[in-house]
Specification:
Layout: E1 11-12, E2 18-19, H1 28-38, H2 51-55, H3 59-63, E3 102-103, E4 107-116, E5 119-126, E6 131-139, H4 145-158, E7 166-172, E8 175-181, E9 187-188, H5 189-193, H6 200-219, E10 232-234, E11 240-242, H7 247-252, H8 259-276, E12 278-279, E13 289-290, H9 300-303, H10 309-318, H11 336-345, H12 397-431, E14 461-462, E15 466-470, E16 497-498, E17 514-525, E18 528-533, E19 538-545, E20 559-567, E21 569-572, E22 579-589, E23 601-608
Parallel strand pairs: 12-13
Antiparallel strand pairs: 1-2, 3-4, 4-5, 5-6, 6-8, 7-8, 9-10, 10-11, 14-23, 15-17, 16-23, 17-22, 18-21, 18-23, 19-20, 19-22
Length: 609
Amino acid sequence: MAERSPAAVGVANESGDTKPLTAQADSATADDATKDLSEIPEEPTAPPKSPEDKGEQTAETTKSLPSTPSSPSDPESPATPSAQSAPSTPAAEPPELHSGHKLARRYRLEECVTRVDGFSSWRAVDEKLRRAVGIHILPSDHSRARPVLAAARSAALLGDPRFVQVLDAVEENDLVYVIHEWLPDATDLTAVLASGPLEPHDSYQMASQVSQAMAAAHREGLAHLRITPDCVLRTESGQYRIRGLAVAAALHGVSSDRPQREDTEAIGALLYASLTQRWPYPEDDHGLNGLPKDVGLVAPDQVRAGVHRGLSELAMRALVNDGATASRELQPCTTPEELAKAVAAIPKIRPPETVPSGSPYQRTTYQQGAYRQPPARQVPPPTAPLPVGPPPALPGGRTGKALKWAVSSLLIAALGLGSWQLADALMNNGDQSNGNGNTTASTSPSASGSGDTGQAGSGKPVSIVGAKDFDPEGTDGGVETPSKVPLAYDGKASTYWETSWYSRADFGGLKGGVGLILDLGKTQQVGSVKVDFIGDTTSVELRAASSDSSSMPDSLSDFSKVASGTGSDVTLKPDKAVKARYVLVWLTSLPLTGDGTYRGKVSEITVTS
């Protein structure tokens, strides 16, 4: 109910009736005005504001109401209060937001990332859980506040790890804010594409992971409607995460009567951009140049040489306009489900092989893209050897004879000493032989404990000829920073291989562990494996594979646990003799890092026999 001015109407009593004004204010004009106003039906009106407040209304507030175009000077506009409303108790204004401001006594704002259309997005810190988070904030009286709350709560119920998770959605102190994950190790596609198009394998992985994720979302009745390069993040492990599911569209007031088609075409635009570094429309957008005007939609393999033909056709099928595709025989993809199936039908594109530095299997000059052989290195001609004459003769006479006898005596003594040491070693070796002629291992600091029934190792270093990151429970086979794998055994303590970022020590509850498979070149004795970590305590297991084939095992069931340990520097020694070609260093619990996330870092691995 609107509040009337006492000067014009009267003062309301406790029962809700209106008392007449005092005799001094009682006049015919006032009575008529009171009577006329009392007969007007009361309707809810916007909270009154002073004329000065009207003038301070910003363009952002005007933009937040696209359905009713108006200007701040229009008295009938819903964006401004009625000119006939009298001033009353002013409404509480939202608190001023700045770096260091704290929401819910928990979320400390750090940096404003975006401020547009009446809302702002921030990087913040959850002081309770000591982790980085992202926050969208808008006033509770914003026209999109209710849709944003509903979208955030729906997205939070999905719980798919391929999406940046919504952690909370709150209305408090005249503000609505949505808390979501913050991925410090991820880079959005806008920044990735700024340096050039993606490799075919990366484009394939992006299209596969994003289309599968959106197909799962649509099965739950959720759409994105704003899939842009800014909304797709690539982690260091090569996984793709989508942020803003349902929430981004609600924040910007976007809706569609064909959401599946909109999301599919958006994925096709991402694939097109990843192949060509061009936006598939005439307008420049997302830091990319658009296509030339008046030429229509040109297939990616006609825009840039060397584009994968299958991926080029796939992008055109997702970007279909009136049935035009790269190949007339191929049907267009109109839903993320259809697009995901089309990606799966393409023969899998293997990643470019990375050869560790110092490996004997270096690429040839032809494989490196050079057609000419490098010029032969100029080797300086060998220096002529100096003439060597016969050794000087020993002096003659008695002195010469004495020297000859002395040299002969020394030679005989040296031969005798060597023969004695050889015989002693053979005798000791015979004493250690058992009845079957086999020898048992001598006790040494590197030998196993009393429960060892096999042969102790010699303590000699074993070369690691290759390694591979291992994440069997990850998305699409899973990878964990494959480009940094060689750094785990390069002999440098300053370099390291690291896992992806997780929200908890148990890998966020998503998987049981990740690790590195080491190839020792051939089946041989494994006495111990020393693992040096960077950071706090890390839990790790040593697992050995029974297979000795030329290809690495690809399943966790191919390995058997032989040792375990916890610490920052862990030496894993099997209780029994182990012979294997492939061993797995399997991380089962990660340490907390300085930014409030959990990540494992392996600086060096050493294997001894």
